[in-house]
Amino acid sequence: MRCFFACFSLLLLAAPSRAADPALAFKISGKTVAVLTQAQLKGRLSSYTTSFFDPVYGKVKSYECLPMGGVMAAAFGARWRDGVHTEAVLQAQDGYASVTEAAKLSQKGGCLAVRDLDFPSWEPVGRRRIDPGPFYLTWEGPRQSAENGYPWPYQLASIDLVRFEERYPEVFPLGALPDTQVMAGFHLFRDRCLRCHSINREGGKVGPDLDAPQSVTSYRTKKWFKSYVRRPSFYRYTEMPDHTDLSDAQLEDLWEYLRWKARKPRR
Questions:
Q1: Which domains does the chain possess?
Q2: How far apart are CA 61 and CA 120, in angstroms?
Q3: Interval 46-85: pLDDT, tens
Q4: 25, 77, 173, 184: which could join 253 in a potential S-S bond, CB 3.0 to 4.6 Å?
């Protein structure tokens, strides 16, 4: 019994615990330019409380928030509006990364939640009952949803400002003309697919690579592809969400982007 309590005490000491004052790292092209603790951010910005529908929980939630635009300005100063580093890579503690247009982070409604007001600590999310704190990027606007290209990463660990083609050269359709189906499909892939899927091993690791070693367009028909992307739950049990909001034209754009990538030489 004495051995049991001794071993149990050692396990408690070895168990990971959240830092008393958690910190968020801020980077430009992978180089850390600032690390700010929650207390430092609150010292520079006025937090506020708010309630809105949170699609991750599927209900109205209440949070203590820091305005996301203010967080970016506090960390990066004027550099994050230089027009060069157009994308923001939002990295979670487990390595999951969302990519979004950096300009979206300045929009009204962006809330960096630092406290769950409905729960003693943080209410767990998902089937795995994950603690989303200490930093959880949420959006107050009814149209600021993941379906509209707004990221909702929890356990946020770092924000990295990059040139998209610098971070993901295999994903960017270099040479494609603006205002084409290929570019429209690329923007859709970046906003809706990249967090889980990759192009020639660049991007998310949750789902399969859609370009290598063979493009999905080489072994699936366009009709099947469009049907599956719109409603994968009809075909199989999967972590991939349904995308019933996507129009036929948007799915055509996504298909054209993937076909364009398939015709390009890979590294």
A1: 18-165 (3.90.420.10), 169-262 (1.10.760.10)
A2: 13
A3: 999 999 999 999 999 999 999 999 999 999 998 777 778 8
A4: 184
